[in-house]
Amino acid sequence: MDKKTRQDLKRLKKERKFDEIFEKYGGIYYRNYVPTWYSYEEIKKLKKEGRYEEIFIKYGYNEYRKILEKAKYEEIKEYKGTFKASFYKIKCILKHIGINITLFFIGFTAFTAGTTEEIIKINSIQYSDEIEKNDKRIKNYAEEIKQMNLTKLQTLMKVTDDMWNSIEGYKIPSKDIFGFFELDLSTLDGYGVCRNFATDVAKKLNEIDPDFNARTINVYMDDGNIKIPDINRNKEQSAAKKIPKENKETEKEKTNSNEVEENKSNTQEFWDKIYEDVNDNIIGNHMVTLVDIPEDKIILVLDPTNPSISIYQNGKMILLNPGSSTMDAKEYSTAIYHGGIDGLINSSRGFLDSFKKSKLSYEELVDKYGLEAQNRALKQIRTVTTVKDNIKQEKNKFSERIRVSKLEKSIKNENYLKINEDRERE
């Protein structure tokens, strides 16, 4: 996107001429520049009026697919009952991550090797401009971090802290492009959830230092508490408040409706349990970043969403931050997210690597990477950043003084020449 186009888009957004954005630049730019509150209200209105084709054109296949699936679910529920409808819902969830439901219950033969690879390939072509621009952003950012000569822990904390400082907050992403979840954080007003944070951080870490071998992994995380370092996530809560009230009421009504159905049918309760078990035991409910630390022979688990560090050891995730929360690795669904047989092989290899004996004991790891060490690293990098910014400001001031001095000198010379010319005329 050239500078002129960007300026025009920002102007149209500021003036709330959203239809003009769509008419001039099409659906992709429309989705990127139209505010969430407006999108929510417009989709709601288009649904009510039955203008589904317009939803597809403006908001893409993913939004259109949700409408079709919901309509299909309601139809099955009405004519074939809750049992069949619940089965259809599970089928949709599994289909989105590339699992064939019939084979899913049999075991690993459910693995459809080409599905995710094909989706990622299609998305890489469709969103090539955005991907190229974002890769350049990440590369420039990595170059800045390299110049700071930070330790491994300082780098982890710096990237996590910068991510929270450079986004709008935590809420359901607008793009959510499979294989390129980091694109939702590519602008200052970007926002996302765990999958967007984990992939963004992983890409940056690998660009800074390939030895990190950063990659994402699906986990199931319980509702326990956890103490996080001094990273400001106030934006996360302010973003959550922006969810329209109508949406919350709809969810409440849906919950009440489900409760009525559960009272009517034991079958519904049974399938709800199946759904929860699939989510908790197979798919997971959270995504984090795995990072190799070769010098300590350990795999760290960096959670950018709830800033904290764990270790991946003997196939288990062990928290280094104080708290009662636990995480279980979901290598199977992670393999599918990574795509094909290669994803399965890499996830299996990561699982086996976790059994390598670390050079440090658990107590030593807490001392080196735990909460106190995280806060200490944050304090150090912020001091370095402040000093660097001050030096930059002073350089800018010096450059400005030089520029003004040259300008004054130039004006003075021009005046001198003019005076001489006037004298010569006399």
Structural description of this entry:
This protein is α+β, with helices and mostly antiparallel strands and 426 residues long. The protein has two domains: 3-92, no CATH class; 129-249 and 278-378, Roll (C8orf32 fold), CATH 3.10.620. Helix content is 66%, strand content 9%. The chain has 18 helices and eight strands. It has helices at residues 3-14, 18-25, 27-33, 36-48, 52-80, 82-96, 101-104, 113-126, 128-146, 152-165, 194-208, 234-241, 245-264, 266-283, 331-338, 340-353, 362-369, 371-425; strands at 169-170, 191-192, 215-221, 286-293, 298-303, 308-313, 316-319, 327-329. The strands form two sheets. Strands 7-6-5-4-3-8 form a six-stranded antiparallel sheet, sandwiched between helices. Strands 1-2 form a two-stranded parallel sheet. Helix 9 (128-146) crosses helix 11 and helix 15 packs across helix 16 (340-353). The protein starts with a helix and ends with a helix.
